[in-house]
Specification:
mainly alpha, two-stranded antiparallel ribbon
Length: about 110
């Protein structure tokens, strides 16, 4: 469970990282996940979306309203949407979201 509806926690233990060049995980204990870089959106870029004043969240003279209502579900969905939108603008050739992988963990 996560703090927000539809939230997902991923656990990517370093020991399970597949060797470089692996396209798909094998499922062996030393190859349970892999990745390829898609691009990066920084916190600074996100915080610049909602500029604030000295009464807001400030760091090194830069103030933002981006984190207002940190535990509000609607505000959090808005922040996630802003991140996806910014990613799509910066990297139009990349998917902004991927389907949630099936969990095949058996206890």
């Amino acid at each position: 469970d996560t703090s927000f509806p539809d939230g997902v926690w991923y656990s990517l233990p370093l020991a399970g990282r597949c060797p470089a060049g692996s396209l798909q995980p094998s499922g062996e204990k030393d190859c349970t996940w892999t990745f390829s870089e898609a691009g990066m959106v920084t916190l600074g870029e996100l915080e610049a979306i909602s500029q604030g004043d000295e009464d807001d969240n400030c760091c090194e003279g830069v103030c933002t309203k981006f984190w207002h209502d940190a535990w509000d579900e609607a505000a959090s969905k808005g922040r996630a949407s802003a991140a996806a939108t910014l990613f799509s603008k910066k990297f139009p050739g990349m998917p902004s979201d991927l389907p949630q992988p099936a969990c095949d963990f058996k206890v």
